[in-house]
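Hey, can you fold this one?
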Amino acid sequence: MVEPGLADNGMVREPLTAVRRLGRRTPAWPIRRGIAPAVRVWLFIGVLATLAVALYVGVVRHLPPPEGPLTLPLVVMAVAFYVIEIKVVHLHFRRGAHSFSLSEVPLVIGLFFATPGDIVLAHALAGGAALLIHRRQKPMKLAFNVATFGLGTGLAVALFGMLAPGGEFGPVQAAAAILAVLASNFFGMVSVTTVISLSEGRPRYTKMRQMALMSTVVAVTNVSLALLAVALVIADVRAIWLLTIPMAMLFLGYRSYLAEYQQHEMLELLYESSRIIQRSPELDSALVALLEHTRLMFRAERAEIRLYPKSEGGGVLTTSVGPDGETMVMQPQEGEQTEWLRSRLVKEGKALIVPHQEEGEEEQAPFSLRGAMVAPLHDDAGPIGVMLVGCRLGALTSFTLDDLQLFETVANHASTALENGQLERSLAQLSSLKEELRFQAYHDPLTGLANRALFIEQVDRQLSDQPDELPVVLFVDVDDFKMVNDSFGHGTGDALLIEIGQRLRGCVRNDDMAARLGGDEFGILLVDDARLSRAHAISERIITALKTPFAIGGKELRVGASIGIAASTGAVEAPQELLRNADVAMYMAKARGKGQAAVFEPAMHATMIQRHDLGAALHRAVGRDEFLLRFQPVVSLAEGVTVGAEALIRWRHPVRGVVAPADFIGVAEESDVILPIGRWVLVEACREARRWDPARGAAPWVSVNLSARQVQQDSFLADVGAALEVSGLPPDRLVLEVTETLMMQDPEGSAEKFAALKRMGVRTAIDDFGTGYSSLSYLRKFPVDMIKIARDFVDVADEDDWAFAHAIVSLGQRLGLKIVAEGVERAAQADRLQLMGCDYAQGYLFARPLQAGAMLRRVAAEVGASRPVARVPLRPRLASLPDVIGA
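Sure. Predicted structure:
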């Protein structure tokens, strides 16, 4: 029968080298991702063992003993199975090996002359003992075989008992025996294939077709011989010895046939290896094909060829083929394995099987090489490399001397191919690989630009050469890139960086160097005169180029650039110092309003230190509750009454006094401190506005400016809701102001959040309308309620300049929006705005920003009498605000 032998499929073997995967693979089973291969196999073995025990206890034990002329005891059956399992014949099917034995003979004889339970116990216990003692199988394989013996034999016994419940020996009983054995045989094939599939993580049932025909022929032959023995025993038990010669001849016939079959197969494989080398025009493809063929020939998991360098300092070129298409082609490698192989092959002078353990040897072979076959590759000048195969698969997990002799022949064929001029081309590839590796080491993999290492190296070279023109570094930082990355994901961010890199290339000459320094930071290296005319011109080109919208993934993205310029002073400088100076200048350009370029000046260092100290102080201010609000009233131009107020933050600095937002908001927006500050402003503004409820008439609303970082947060809508809840302010009395720039950076996301605010009852306004990106095409997408005219369109002297304000008012009226004019300081401005139809205005003409108490008194005075003050929660401390609003 086909002995169910668990093939060693490399579940616990280490790969000889790291490889990259090429080609198509058989789809993996989903279970593969969650459970280790060895665990899956043990679980399957457990299922088989459980079924075997259940079948034995529930069915086999209750079957009646046979009614024959004799009854064979358990010991006799055990001895028979033990002897049979010692001598088996192995047939290899590519990556697996299956064992054929005469175990059908004692099984069929037992069906007619032994107790059913004794048959199962004898095969499981005696067969397992033979595998353990004589074939030294590992625990997993031994457990699998014993479980399969028990369940397969139990199935045969149970099926025979159902088909031939009793009676004299005849055709019915013979047919029942044949069917029972074939069923057991089929179960063995299925169990072997299943366990291989579980260990590899993908189905391997196509292999069953390879062994089915041979196993069926063997099974029927063995059963026929056994039935003949049964007939002889029934006729005359003394004639049983006549079967010893046919059984021995049958066994030897199996071995002879399979030996001839495998020898023929090996010769075909050897001829095929020669044809592979001859018909492959390129060395790399020839080696890959030869290694894959060699791996299958010797039923190994991995095959490799390592070529030694022609010159000193070169790397060993390794080509390897592993399971499931894992391939590495001509990759430079060194390591413990290569050095051990060199020294050992020089010592031996011929092919060898690496021993698993050598007594008396000081230097043991690397673990991943043990048990592998290795052979030298050589030409007329001497050794040129080594070929090896390792991780033997199948029931026979060790290579034999016959395998080694055949492998040495294959290695000689490979040496001939390398000697015929192809090796020179492969070594030439090493130079190309080195250049490729150098390119990868000095260039950014995303944009293809130079990376920081190459950029600094070139800056250092320019500084060392001391040319007539000065080396100049431009430090380019992409404005608002983080918003794009956070809003649309890193995939969109990467695509944007690639486009930015291409535009930067178009802004510089071939002699200049453009590099990506990291993240959204880029560098430009050029030479210029003391006036830095080229540096300024390139900076303007870059700013203009990056201001043009980018079309990425069907979206229109807008960013900008802030640029720092630093020139060498002519003295000896370190490249890092020049880069740092450009970085400092870039931060100063960004602090002045983004989209600008600034030239480094020594005084900027002190400014940067101050900004750093300011940032640290802001973090401390969050915990010390050092912020306060001022409120600038918004009045109705038609009625002259206060309809709302804009909340303006101030910093009550312990040393500098009250600090205006222009002096610290920029620094806050560069860090996460803007988030707790923004949440505090929301809650405090709502809390104060709740106190403005008049005794009669409409209550004024409060408007709060939002930063881009706030709107980006996933918790933004929850923060707004929490501010309304903790203050008790009705949603329609809160107006949130955003800029056009914020809307254009993420129009889809902003529109969704504005719609959600609308559903909450909160109103929204566009601040400084007309000064940012053109957003008229998006205005109808945003459910805004107000437009605020910037001061620049109100504080004008020329009559024609009023056209901008008039156009904004007309647009707002057509869209049904309220219009608020900012920066109104003269009565003539207010009159002109009223004639245009502007609804509201704010500015020094009406009031400067007021403290909370003054704002409360102003509202009370406008209704002609004092009014009761609404009861509101205590003012929340800034440090504890996140806990209050659930952020």
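The chain is about 50% helix and 15% strand. Let me know if you want another pass with a different chain boundary.
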